[in-house]
């Protein structure tokens, strides 16, 4: 399967959200959703696999990270967070350990620690 080209609209959404965060403003809701979805797709592309399900509620969910594949029910490793936390993690504005410790990220399963894969950009 050919490599997917970066989505210019997704990249623009990430840039808009990052600019808002860096200036202390609240990001626009549509841009935040688009940026979170784009960054989930980037993780899925960068770390293909099906051993971890990453859920950004209510935006989207992807399966990524090489390892044992599940076929039915809940995957053995699940990461769940909100869009703002996911964008902050994926862009390096929040550390994995801090997000888990604060409860902003709920991670369960042996492969749910995504710290080695973040930030994406």
List keywords for this structure.
121 residues, alpha+beta, 17% strand, globular, SCP2_sterol-bd_dom_sf, Bacterial SCP orthologue domain-containing protein, SCP_3
Task: Provide an overview of this structure.
The protein has 121 residues and is α+β, with helices and mostly antiparallel strands. The protein has one domain (8-114): Nonspecific Lipid-transfer Protein, Chain A. It has helices at residues 8-22, 29-46, 83-90, 96-102, and strands spanning 52-57, 60-64, 77-82, 106-108. Strand 1 and strand 2 form a beta hairpin. Helix 1 (8-22) packs across helix 2 (29-46) and helix 2 (29-46) packs across helix 3. The two termini are 23 Å apart. The mean pLDDT is 91. Residues 28-120 form the Bacterial SCP orthologue domain. InterPro entries: SCP2_sterol-bd_dom_sf, SCP_3.
- How large is the radius of gyration? 14 Å
Q: Order the strands across the largest sheet as they lie in space.
A: 2-1-3-4
Q: Structural class, from helix and strand content?
A: alpha+beta
The top-level CATH class is: Alpha Beta
Can you tell me the CATH topology?
A: Nonspecific Lipid-transfer Protein, Chain A
**Percent helix range:** 25-40%
Short description:
This protein has 121 residues and is an alpha+beta fold. It has helices at 8-22, 29-46, 83-90, 96-102; strands at 52-57, 60-64, 77-82, 106-108. A hairpin with a 2-residue loop joins strand 1 and strand 2.
Strands, helices and their partners?
Layout: H1 8-22, H2 29-46, E1 52-57, E2 60-64, E3 77-82, H3 83-90, H4 96-102, E4 106-108
Parallel strand pairs: 1-3
Antiparallel strand pairs: 1-2, 3-4
Helix pairs in contact: 1-2, 2-3
Organism: Trebonia kvetii
Domain Bacterial SCP orthologue: 28-120
Protein name: Bacterial SCP orthologue domain-containing protein
């Amino acid at each position: 399967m050919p490599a997917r080209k970066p989505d210019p609209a997704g990249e623009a959404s990430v840039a808009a959200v990052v600019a808002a965060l860096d200036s202390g403003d609240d990001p626009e809701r549509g841009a935040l959703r688009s940026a979170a979805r784009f960054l989930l797709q980037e993780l899925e592309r960068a770390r293909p696999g099906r051993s971890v399900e990453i859920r950004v509620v209510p935006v989207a969910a992807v399966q990524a990270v090489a390892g044992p594949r599940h076929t039915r029910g809940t995957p053995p490793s699940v990461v769940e967070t909100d869009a703002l936390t996911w964008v902050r993690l994926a862009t390096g504005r929040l550390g994995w350990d801090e997000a888990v410790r604060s409860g902003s990220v709920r991670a369960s399963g042996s492969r749910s620690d995504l710290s080695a894969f973040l930030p994406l950009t």
